[in-house]
Amino acid sequence: MRGHSGTYKSKKGLSISSLPNMVFTFLVCLMCWYVGYDLRIGFPVTGSDSTSLIWDVFCGFLTDRNFVYLAGFSLLLLSASFIQRIHFIFMIVQGKTTLPFLLFFLLNSANPDFYPIHPGSIAIFLLIFAIFELFGSYQNPSSTGRIFNLMVSIGVGSLIWPHLLLFIPVFLIGMYQFRILNTRTFFAGILGLLTVFWFVLGWCVWKSDFTVFTNLAQCLSEIHIVFTNESRLSVWLKPLFFFFLMIVLLFHISTQESERTIRTRHFLTFIFMLGFYSFILSLLYAPVFVDFEYLFYLSVSIIASCSLSGNGIRSYLFYYLLITLLIGAYILKLWIF
Length: 337
What we know:
Order of helices and strands: HHHHHHHHHHHHHH
Strand content: under 5%
Largest sheet: none
Number of strands: 0
Shape: globular
Distance between the termini: 56 Å
């Protein structure tokens, strides 16, 4: 009994979700944000030819540096909390762990390219809500209300970041995989998407200005491949590393499939598909590479959490090795900056 108790305490003491590790991770993230704030990285926030008109208008109000950095930090914290909430409800990661929150918060805080706020910072929150609605309708073909909400959130998000519309095929595949795709749910999704753009159309007719739609089409049609866009190696090397890491970790998880339910495996498959799709799109749309990378780390954080959910010494060391690599990449990025 003593031996077993000692082993249990040892493993519990090495838990990544322990309070000391949570505090340490939060302090690392807070320090990264403070350095970004002090160096004014990403400020002032401006629009471009690859951003929506609504985002350009929104940027006009982001003139106070304190408010902008606080808003960006708060949005990241809110998104990470929402991801953690999804884990608590659907138990994607085994055990009571805060790893999804910690990893997502860490991956995005340790990247100065995300400072202080981007269209993806807002779009990802709506995308997470869409994932929540999709998971909540698992194997429930009559959940038309959830599918309607899912498409409304994507439609609203696309007004800020038009490229969010490109994720609709992934959700349709997810609906098919979760056995909820039928005529009723399909048209409920179409109705949800049209509801958003119906209001936009009414606004355009009232103003006699349809540039919102032309801008939307322009953003989606301008494809600039990263490797041919004179991009620096530092821009895509880190996402490429995490892309292969995500594949390796998913393979590691698949070897433990017997310990997971069919529903959890379906959820993880969808999360991987979402990350894979985000990574591919990030290579095709170089001007908004950062926004796709922001969404890509959503999948990385959840899959890595599943792989590191054990409290063994290897998971513990891997977590701190990851923090070390992220801090090193952060310093390198600042040196290049």
